[in-house]
Amino acid sequence: MSGFSTARQKMVDGQVRTSDVTDARILDAMLALPRENFVPEDKRALAYLDLDLDVAESGSARRFLVKPALTAKLLQAADLKETDSVLVVGAATGYAAALAARLAAKVTATEGDSALCAKGREILAGLGLTNVTFKTAEAAAGDPAGAPYDVILLNGATEVMPDALCRQLKQDGRLLGVFAIARPSRATIVTHTLSDFGHRVLFDAAAPVLPGLERVPAFVF
Fold it and tell me: For the whole model, what pTM was predicted?
């Protein structure tokens, strides 16, 4: 095995499997995808560590690939079907979108940083993943033109209720992400049933807040 292949196997065995991720499709996807391709050259040695990894170019606002185990647990909770249409919000360079693309029919990835969008397109093309479309869009906006979606995955946390994103779900669709609206922050699934939305806490979790989904500071006299 190469150094990265060994690190990939250790990531899956030591971080993902031990986090109760048992879906073989997700494990296989994580073993197949070279996560080092999604990070800047000077950070490749960090690609498989248990951390939120900043992948933004120097001088740009920080943007992250969230921890591998958290990504895997959210994907498992999403229960992606081969026919699903998926929206990945705040996709950064597209690692979570690439994983979803191996599990679902079609993936749209949105990212507010146009440079990261371009990088994501380049990476995914190099990997031969043709069922992912990258779009430059702010996290809170989602992708109304492509809606409704079976699954919406937040590649990060939100400090506000993402109502506009929830409205882009299909009937019986589900949105997953880390909700940091209250403390402690928790991974949460929102399901669209009839004309209402249900919320269910999955587990405690932390992730960097996505730009545009920050809490509005309260006005102080």
Answer: 0.95
